[in-house]
From TrEMBL:
Source organism (scientific name): Bradyrhizobium uaiense
Transmembrane segments: 6-29, 41-64, 70-93, 100-122, 134-157
Keyword terms, alphabetized: Membrane, Transmembrane, Transmembrane helix
Keyword Transmembrane helix annotated: yes
Keyword Transmembrane helix in record: yes
Highest taxon, organism lineage: Bacteria
Name of this chain's protein: Uncharacterized protein
Length: 172
């Protein structure tokens, strides 16, 4: 069965990506750069702790029963895993565990790949976003914002100037 493009949905997603990137570059990134590395990462991970919302793709009535169950399962369980990893990363950053940064890498790589996989599966296995019902706002609004924040996490992880000099000094 050929995949048909839903232009209004794609424009909605593209608009959210663009707006998220502009807001992040204008307001969020300058504020994050002024924070100690652990604090900036913890703040971004907190945003991902709400990804358990993807489990709603497994709830009858939230989405149409016609939604491909393989797609719904991948979205739901992938997001739940990402939320758990984000919470674990937040705890590790808060308590300054030696594994904090590797956990952030794990959370961020998993979370990014999970979202990209969900878009791919949505386009190939469940091409009709009209079946998402109330869940339409997850891929149209929340996922683009999450992906932009994943990019910011990668940028912070790869910055050397934002080293953890704050470990012994209180932030101002």
């Amino acid at each position: 069965m050929p995949v048909s493009l839903n232009i209004p949905f794609l424009l909605s997603v593209a608009g959210t990506f663009l707006t998220s990137a502009v807001v992040a570059a204008t307001y969020v990134w300058p504020a994050l750069r002024s924070l100690p590395r652990h604090e900036a990462l913890r703040l971004l991970a907190a945003f991902h702790a709400f990804r358990f919302l993807g489990m709603n793709f497994l709830v009858a009535g939230f989405v149409s029963p016609e939604v491909n169950p393989v797609f719904a399962g991948a979205v739901g369980w992938g997001d739940l895993t990402a939320a758990a990893l984000a919470l674990l990363a937040m705890a590790a950053l808060s308590w300054r565990w030696p594994l904090a940064i590797p956990l952030v890498w794990l959370f961020n790589i998993w979370g990014t790949l999970d979202l990209l996989n969900a878009y791919f599966m949505g386009a190939t296995k469940n091409a009709d976003p009209g079946l998402f019902g109330a869940g339409i706002y997850i891929p149209a609004l929340y996922v683009p914002m999450l992906l932009v924040s994943h990019v910011m996490v990668f940028m912070i992880l790869m910055r050397t100037k934002m080293a953890d000099v704050d470990l012994l000094e209180p932030s101002s």
